[in-house]
Design goal:
heterodimer; A: alpha/beta; Rossmann fold; 8-stranded mixed sheet; two-stranded antiparallel ribbon; 10 helices; 10 strands; B: alpha+beta
């Protein structure tokens, strides 16, 4: 049976603004399926975003949503979670919003291990503002501000999140659409800060400049570079050259969660009176 | 036993003509007709839902019983 997305979409909001072939729509579908399988209540779910193409997502979803300042999604979401710890807080954003402009907020949310889920749609570029290079643009690739190739090496968002202290880190791609909802559902259920990086395609500002002839070519690239974690165990370092691991990359359930720890601080402070 | 065919609904108002559904259909059921995707060969459809899963624009529904 066809999945009924309409019950999670604000009436009259479709068609969305994303370009033809943009993977953000696929990720949004995955998020909706994940929220639906977990039976989340609309009044107890908050989707928070910053600025950017990917950050337009909360505008379409029919639950509590917050569209905030550029890169500050994690800061606003922390506020929501601290005020109402019973809420399911989901952050969405792009790679530029999350790791450059909001890089500091991102690593500190990871460090705190606050119970939220961050979905980063990594399309390797700043799409909305005109195709400037982002910290995830691979070395040598072209953007509007690096017409002769980007000299910087790109971030590995998953490794950055693990290093900063996130307790659940997963990676998927827009091509592997049926995996997205499972990764997001597992991330939402995890008690602690969870990061789900979804490799995405931007045919308009990234594909065009980097000799991808079509959306299909970009999707096929995602299909080729992705290697599931289990399959990678049997592969040699040479075979893994240029590949990207997908699936659940890191999970730690022992680290204390921030809102629970903060409740203990309040208890101690009140007892000391 | 006769195979039960699904109903493939394409909402042209939402379709942006990105070709994803047509290219990744394993049974070559869909085609581009002008700007929009349309059903070419419904008999071949195996209801794998790949087109519905991958459509970024919420434009395809595969309705099975």
């Amino acid at each position: 049976m066809a999945f009924d997305y309409d019950k999670w979409i604000r009436p009259g909001k479709l068609p969305h603004i994303w370009c033809p072939g943009c993977g953000h729509g696929i990720v949004m579908k995955g998020l909706i399926r994940a929220m639906d399988t977990l039976n989340l209540k609309k009044e107890e779910t908050a989707v928070v975003s910053g600025i950017g193409c990917a950050s337009r997502l909360p505008g379409y979803i029919d639950c509590c949503t917050l569209h905030t300042a550029h890169g500050r999604a994690a800061a606003f979401a922390t506020g929501v979670k601290m005020a109402k710890p019973e809420m399911n807080v989901i952050l969405v954003g792009g790679d530029g919003d999350g790791t450059a402009i909001g890089g500091n907020h991102f690593i500190h949310a990871c460090r705190r291990n606050i119970n939220m889920t961050y979905i980063i749609m990594n399309n390797y570029i700043y799409g909305m503002t005109g195709g400037q290079f982002s910290p995830c643009t691979p070395t040598g690739h072209k953007a509007s501000t690096t017409p002769y190739g980007n000299p910087d090496p790109g971030f590995d968002i998953a490794k950055l999140a693990i290093g900063a202290g996130a307790t659940f880190v997963a990676r998927g791609t827009a091509f592997h659409a049926n995996q997205i909802d499972k990764l997001i559902a597992e991330a939402i259920q995890h008690k602690g800060f969870s990061v789900v990086e979804i490799l995405d395609d931007c045919p308009t500002t990234y594909g065009r400049r980097n000799k991808y002839k079509s959306v299909i070519e970009m999707m096929n690239r995602l299909k080729d570079v992705a290697v599931p974690v289990k399959a990678a165990e049997k592969m040699t370092a040479e075979q893994l050259q240029g590949k990207v691991l997908t699936g659940v990359l890191y999970k730690d359930e022992t680290k204390p969660e921030y809102t629970a720890e903060y409740a203990k601080v309040i208890e101690r402070a009140q007892a000391a009176k | 036993m006769e195979k039960k065919l699904p109903k493939i609904e394409i909402i042209e108002k939402y379709c942006k003509g990105c070709h994803i559904c047509v290219e990744f259909c394993p049974k070559d059921v869909l085609e581009m007709k002008g700007f929009y995707a349309s059903v070419k060969n419904l008999e071949a459809c195996i209801s794998c839902m790949q087109c519905e899963l991958r459509c970024p624009d919420f434009a395809i529904k595969v309705i099975t019983e």
